[in-house]
Design goal:
Helix content is about 50%, strand content about 20%. The chain has a seven-stranded mixed sheet with strand order 10-9-12-13-14-11-15. It has a four-stranded antiparallel sheet with strand order 1-8-7-6. A hairpin with a 2-residue loop joins strand 6 and strand 7. Helix 14 runs parallel beside helix 16 and helix 16 runs antiparallel to helix 17. The termini are far apart. The structure holds adenosine-5'-triphosphate and magnesium ion. Magnesium ion (MG) binds next to helix 8. One of its GO terms (molecular function) is ATP hydrolysis activity. Belongs to the AAA ATPase family. BCS1 subfamily. Keywords: ATP-binding, Magnesium, Nucleotide-binding.
């Protein structure tokens, strides 16, 4: 009896150890032969054969939280990765939040299973926990709980798993961690990246009011850029991309920069050129920037005189005591930071026409983005941001006004924020649009009047000149009388 239960227990243990299925099969056959009546033997043998056929194809890999004293990177990566695979059908989940993060993290609990499909193969994950004894010189033997993942898969996918699946998990977990990371904005003082603060700008492409088509183009451009490491290598170009944002104040240039950083999960390096004394200092700062970061130079037209490159050439003999346009161009062309990769460079300006054509030349800044006044697309986004509405009886009227009136998204936002009551807020906006329309009509009228005045001034000046000319030629001082004198004469021939 004792030997029988021992044999059964051994069989059970073997059954759970997929790596030793062949041995288990042999043992099971022995058990069948020894303990089952002959008529049941053939039936049981067939069943066991099928079962082991299936099990022998299944392999299990154990991924422990720690290996000895070392933490296991693969376990951490799998934890992050599997978090993204949690499905609503799972019965037991765990929730946690640390004080320094403002997010609740959901993970799955011990004994829950997750099935993941990768490159056509099925991987079955289960989190388990087991008690182990640990000897310690101080406390002697203590028991600890060790977490581990059991990963089961068909043995034919073993190579795929070892070569691709684990690296996929490690790669994805890096991305997930990057997405969870708090973004920073770093500023320079003189020639050093001096202090960083958390970037908590809430702008995203979703909340940005701009032409829908332009928004889509920018998002696609960014997404393509980050995927193109190999492409840039192949064409021999630094893995960088430059954007020039231009438009009047309050049209969302800085908001777009924040949206780009939030979208790519890149830190921002906000460079104040006025803090710098030379191109060398500029180089030092660029070299000190990490990968996956965004260099931002706002109001580039105000930071440095970028109008006349010829002047720069003329003063070339001067010591390098300022940041020059060619310094900036080198930074755009990526000459000083060929070691760095995955960089975005963004310049902003309110006045594109003040920039040197060298900076605007094709191939220099990859995309020129015009941030314009608020149109119907932009207004819809703002109405949804501030009042969670996507339609309202007054939208049509507003759309019509927006076609005529130049108003910035910042001005529209301000009106929408004035009241929680959407009707009051929209009424305020309509009043603003009417006021602006009136102002611009008056301005137009004034401009036309001044044009007329100029024309009139010009005419009277011309008349005055003609008068003086006639005076000097004829000695007659009264214009009326000149007309009388010359009468029908051919003036040009006479004069
Ligand atoms: N396109 C936009 N979409 C959403 N909100 C906007 C947009 N433009 C402006 N705003 C609102 O107006 C505020 C000011 O906009 P922002 O600072 O982005 O403008 P800017 O173009 O950078 O102006 P400046 O030229 O003065 O630097 C933002 O915080 C935001 O609330
Ligand atoms: Mg700005």
């Amino acid at each position: 009896m004792e030997s029988r239960s021992k044999a059964m227990e051994t069989t059970k243990n073997y059954l759970t150890t997929a790596a030793s299925v062949a041995a288990s099969a042999m043992l099971a056959r022995t058990v069948i032969n020894e303990f089952l009546p002959s008529e049941l033997r053939s039936l049981a043998s067939m069943g066991i054969h099928k079962l082991f056929g299936r099990l022998s194809a299944e392999q299990t890999i154990i991924i422990r939280q720690t290996e000895g004293l070392n933490s296991n990177e693969l376990y951490d990566a799998a934890s992050s990765y599997l978090r993204t695979k949690i499905s609503p059908t799972m019965k037991r989940l765990r929730a946690s939040k640390s004080e320094d993060k403002n997010k609740v993290v959901i993970t799955f609990d011990v004994d829950e299973e997750i099935i993941d499909i990768f490159q056509g193969a099925e991987y079955k994950w289960k989190l388990t926990s087991q008690e182990e004894t640990q000897s310690n010189s101080r406390y002697g033997e203590t028991s600890i709980q060790v977490r581990l993942f059991e990963l089961k898969f068909h043995s034919k996918y073993k190579d795929v798993m070892l070569n691709n699946y684990f690296s996929h998990i490690l790669e994805r977990s890096k991305e997930i961690k990057a997405a969870d990371r708090q973004l920073k904005i770093t500023m320079n003082q003189y020639d050093e990246w001096h202090y960083s603060i958390e970037l908590n700008h809430p702008a995203t492409f979703g909340t940005l009011a701009m032409d829908a088509e332009l928004k889509r183009t920018i998002m696609e451009d960014l997404a393509r850029f980050v995927k193109r490491k190999e492409y840039y290598k192949r064409i021999g170009k630094a893995w960088k991309r430059g954007y020039l944002l231009f438009g009047p104040p309050g049209t969302g240039k800085s908001s777009l920069i924040a949206a780009m950083a939030n979208y790519l999960r890149f830190d921002i390096y906000d460079l104040d050129l006025k803090e710098l004394c030379s191109n060398t200092e500029l180089k030092t700062l660029l070299v000190g920037m990490p990968n996956k970061s965004m260099l931002v130079i706002e109001d580039i037209d105000c930071s440095i005189d970028l109008r006349n490159r010829d002047e720069e050439k003329e003063t070339k003999s001067k010591p390098e005591d300022e940041v020059t346009l060619s310094g900036i161009l080198n930074c755009v062309d990526g000459l000083w930071s060929t070691s760095g990769e995955e960089r975005i460079i963004v310049f902003t300006t309110n006045y594109k026409d003040r920039l040197d054509p060298a900076l605007l030349r094709p191939g220099r800044m990859d995309m020129h983005i015009h941030m314009g006044h608020c149109g119907p697309d932009g207004f819809r986004v703002l109405a949804s941001n501030y009042h969670c509405i996507d339609d309202h009886p007054r939208f049509e009227e507003i759309d019509e006004l927006l076609k005529e009136v130049e108003v910035t998204p910042a001005e529209v936002s301000e009106e929408l924020l004035r009241s929680d009551d959407v009707d009051i807020a929209l009424r305020g906006l309509i009043q603003l649009l009417h006021k602006k329309r009136k102002e611009s009509q008056e301005e137009k009228r004034r401009a036309e009047d001044s044009q007329d005045n100029k024309q009139r001034d010009g005419d009277s000046k011309q008349i005055e000149e003609e008068k003086q000319h006639v005076e000097s030629e004829t000695g007659v001082s009264d214009y009326e009388s000149i007309e009388e004198i010359i009468g029908d004469q051919d003036w040009s021939r006479d004069v």
